Amino acid sequence: MTPRPDRPAPVTWLTEDEQAWREQVAAFAEKSVVPRAAGMDRAAVLAPDLVTELRSAGLMAIHSPERYGGRGGGLFDVIVAIEELAKADPAVAVFVDVQNALVTQALLTHGSGDQKRAHLTALAGGGVGAFALSEEQAGSDALALSTTARPDGDGFVLHGRKRWITNAAEADLFLLLARVPEQGVTAFLVDRRADGLTVGDRIPKMGIRATSTCEVQLSGVRVPRRNVLGAVGRGDVVAVQTLDIGKLGIAAQLVGLADGALAAAVAHARRRSQFGHPIGAYQGVRFPLARVSAELEAARVQLYNATRLAEHGVHTGELTRAAAVAKYLASEVAESSASLAVEVLGGLGFAEAGGVEKLYRDAKVGKIYEGTSNMQFRAISAHLLRGVTEHAGQAPGLRDAGPAGPGG
Q1: N or C: which end of the chain has fewer CB within 10 A?
Q2: Catalytic annotation on 66?
């Protein structure tokens, strides 16, 4: 439908280019992701040829400028792609999310000209990025870092250990945060081949198994000063602004997951008959499906609106609130939709062959990574209760709430 020129377009209406991109990604997902999803989940690894196909389809450099080899799209194109991929396999969606919404986004926002030319070109040409923030004691309290970066000549020497780093097994480039003594948290671009950098084994997980999650150890890793992203001591700014967009990426993954689960449940409710009627004819099935559909629509509207806000460059505080709302709503509906799908499919839903038990496992991390639900409430309440100082006694309870995000 064409928007009226005298009225603002509804936030869920896509432009012709956006809709064409959605259809392109959906067709790719159906052809290249769906047939591999169950096998990758069982093997707990991304198919190497799929990574190549993702790059060829423009999905590893969605909003990188064309001059760096990227597709030249916008942030909304990133969100649409993640959503569509998640309908097929949320693990593949997270892989693409970290590459685009975290690493590429940080380079676009904070990178120098030389950094963009070097690293965006490499990422568009087949390189994989990872965001290394989380540590043993740095999860929800994301900047409580023990990894250090000590000045040494024309660079820094890094020591420490990162945990829960998504894409670490495949990564060629790590966007890594460390603490420079007396100067503060700083963001670094670290080559995987750097001496002293070791990527640990894949961590077995409940869900999103195909995407890798590993420890990254740094023992005397030398990083040249030119690989500081932003400025020394300003890594907190890099982290906050990057994670705002990261929340939108994860919200898109969860909205796509919820949509895929709901579609499976609706399809089963149409074809499965009991007592002479399709089970979708009974209120006990119809109404829960309707409830999840309404919750999914609310989450999608908030996600799209927050993404439009980001594209318009709104103030960081407003974007932080909007992204927190989107991520919270999406995490809720992903879990409820996947759970309902298992119940609607019954015994088949509980079995691996039904396909939805995987989505149920994949959904749970949505309330943990990229900031737990409590951390989203903290961001929302800070905006809602401006001027009212949070009770300090509650802060420690939030520190152990979980990893900061899919990039660690």
Answers
A1: N
A2: no
